[in-house]
Write a structure and sequence with these properties.
By secondary structure, this protein is mainly beta. The chain is 6% helix and 45% strand. The chain has a seven-stranded mixed sheet with strand order 21-20-22-24-31-26-29. Strands 2, 4, 7, 8 and 9 form a five-stranded mixed sheet that branches. β43 (538-539) and β44 (542-543) form a beta hairpin.
Length: 573
């Protein structure tokens, strides 16, 4: 309990006659004592941060945002992973002014709220290139739709009962409207649905799931006119209700643009030449920087690192037809681009792995936004099937982890599991050599210790691609008086307990620390531990978690050190 809280509390308490024992206190006095205790407990709690609304802004923008979560003592302190994004608390509780620096690159930052009792979970705030537009209610029908200029990033929330948000946009013939909604990847509690209507209210396009649960519409405009985009959604995770939902957590951002939108860009190597392959919409307006042909400018903000990483790939081999049999397989070094031109199409690739090497074999298709459900199989030189996978990589994309043995020629076979009629399914098939590695996952991203006490934190160890070395676990950036003994995780250990101790003389502290592992036989191999934000658990037929997020792992757990002596070693962490 804070000293100031104690002073205020006890100064208002009625004095107790010395003759009365606790067993003879009056009922009203006991109730008053309990009410004050509850009040103190509420004021002493660490702040909560579930979401920001809006969840992002444009480079160079200054805006007002709301923090969703309990904050009993306003204002809490705030920590941001990049000082170019400055949050300032306003007088109204849960209201902040945010100033985004002009030189910060597009992407995202992590933010925590904290007070003397502890810190909130880390949540993200997005930095976009696209100009922001903030939704205003009521906009549930075409008649009261928000009018949005084309090429805007709309920040909205389904806050009304069974809410529908409607946006009017003027489109020109000959362009393609891109409407991409981000909600699932933001950690929102909505499973969204989006549809496009013409001025007469006819539904022109509708989409529910495109990138995981987030919808996407690409519509070729044949007539210049006003069009309407409507957003609605069901609760996530799913429950028994079949009605549209609403709530503070139903946040989203919606990109509406008719500018170049890149689905994929690749450099293809063929017969000593290199050519650039672009796939997307409105690409006739692509312009390269002077003297930098082949260096693509950024197009259309992506919410997650996985989405950004997937766009560009270099040194792919183009598929050469016919390659529908092992004997006519297309030769590749590490990666190729191909297409399944009809439901029965099968593509074979010839590939020579290095001996005694781990490989990650995968197909990228659904994650790039292509339709279809690919199957990947690995065959030996004599045509024997050695491995097969359907969707380990997510979004209907297969992935195989495999270790080569003796030198040989291998074959990769790509086919479709969907046998109904469909457009060509484009894909990349990749055979990437991998080094032994470790994934270190913390049970929590927050650690609370009192001076003179110890605290345990569980660390899980997942070894990949043949890693079998002991790992030394250490903590960095600990404040004076706090220690964590070095721990060695043996090759067969899957989890280990880390013990932190705070000396009696240690002063109060708030700030991030770092936990990492290093291979004992090679200190250059380092692995940073963090709290994962993704999960593959399943509930009610849909993922009871998130398979991709703005940050899939929160590094640098937060340490709260409480000292009876008071004072802090870092007033401004």
């Amino acid at each position: 309990m804070h000293a100031a809280h104690k002073a205020r509390f006890y100064s208002k308490m009625p004095s107790r006659p010395p003759s009365l024992r606790p067993s003879t206190w009056s009922v009203p006095w006991v109730l008053l004592h309990l009410l004050h205790s509850v009040s103190l407990w509420m004021h002493a709690a660490a702040p909560e941060l579930q979401h920001w609304f809006p969840v992002g802004g444009q480079v160079g923008e200054t805006l007002t945002v709301t923090s969703v979560g309990k904050n009993n003592d306003w204002p809490p302190k705030i920590w941001v992973s990049n000082p170019e994004v400055r949050f300032t608390a306003e007088e109204t509780p849960n209201t902040w002014s945010v100033e985004i620096g002009k030189n910060i690159p597009p992407g995202s930052v992590l933010v925590r709220l904290f007070n003397e009792e502890g810190a909130s979970q880390a949540r993200w705030f997005l930095i976009n290139e696209t100009q922001s537009f903030r939704e205003t209610e009521a906009n549930h029908t075409m008649a009261n739709a928000n009018r949005v200029p084309i090429h805007r990033m709309i920040h909205g929330r389904l806050s009304e009962r069974q809410d529908v948000d409607t946006y009017q946009v003027a489109l020109k013939a000959g362009t393609t409207l891109i409407a991409r909604m981000d909600a699932y990847v933001l950690g929102s509690t909505v499973d969204p649905l989006m549809r496009l209507l013409d001025a007469d209210g006819r539904v022109l396009a509708i989409n529910h799931d495109h990138y995981h649960l987030d919808p996407f519409i690409a519509f070729d405009v044949s007539r210049s006119d006003h069009y309407y985009v409507q957003v609605m959604g069901f609760p996530y995770p799913a429950n028994a209700s079949q009605r549209f939902g609403n709530g503070d957590g139903y946040i989203y951002q919606l990109l509406l643009t008719d500018r170049p939108y890149m689905k994929a860009s690749e450099t293809l190597k063929e017969e000593g030449s290199v050519r650039l392959n672009l796939d997307g919409w409105n690409l006739h307006d692509v312009r390269f920087p002077p003297g930098r042909a082949g260096i693509l400018p950024r197009y259309s903000d992506r919410a997650t690192e996985e989405q950004r990483r997937l766009i560009h790939m270099e040194n792919l081999s183009p598929e050469k037809e016919p390659n529908d049999r092992l004997e006519t397989a297309t030769g590749i070094s590490q990666a190729a681009r191909g297409s399944l031109d009809h439901p029965e199409d099968v593509d074979w690739y010839r590939w020579s792995p290095e001996a005694h090497t781990w490989y990650q074999l995968e197909v990228q298709s659904g994650r790039l936004g292509y339709e279809g459900d690919c199957l990947l199989k690995l065959y030996s030189e004599d045509g024997k099937e050695m491995a097969s996978n359907d969707d380990a990589a997510g979004m209907r994309d297969p992935r195989i982890e495999w270790q080569s043995k003796d030198p040989q020629t291998c074959y990769l076979r790509v086919s479709s599991l969907l046998k109904s009629s469909q457009p060509p399914t484009h894909y990349r098939v990749i055979a990437r050599p991998m080094r032994p590695s470790c994934h270190l996952t913390l049970e929590s991203d927050r650690l609370n210790i009192q001076s003179g006490d110890s605290q345990e934190l569980k660390l899980s160890i997942q070894r990949t691609f043949g890693h079998s070395k002991p790992i030394l676990i250490k903590a960095l950036h600990l404040p004076p008086g706090v220690s964590m003994p070095l721990v060695t995780a043996e090759a067969n250990q899957k989890e280990i307990l880390l013990v932190f101790h705070a000396a009696h003389s240690s002063r109060s502290y708030q700030g991030p620390i770092r936990i990492m592992g290093v291979d004992l036989d090679n200190r250059w191999n380092q692995y940073v531990a963090g709290k994962e934000t993704v999960t593959t658990s399943v509930n009610n037929g849909v993922p009871n978690g998130y398979l991709d997020q703005v940050f899939t792992k929160v590094l640098d757990p937060w340490l709260t050190l409480t000292s009876a002596s008071g004072g802090m070693d870092n007033e401004e962490p």
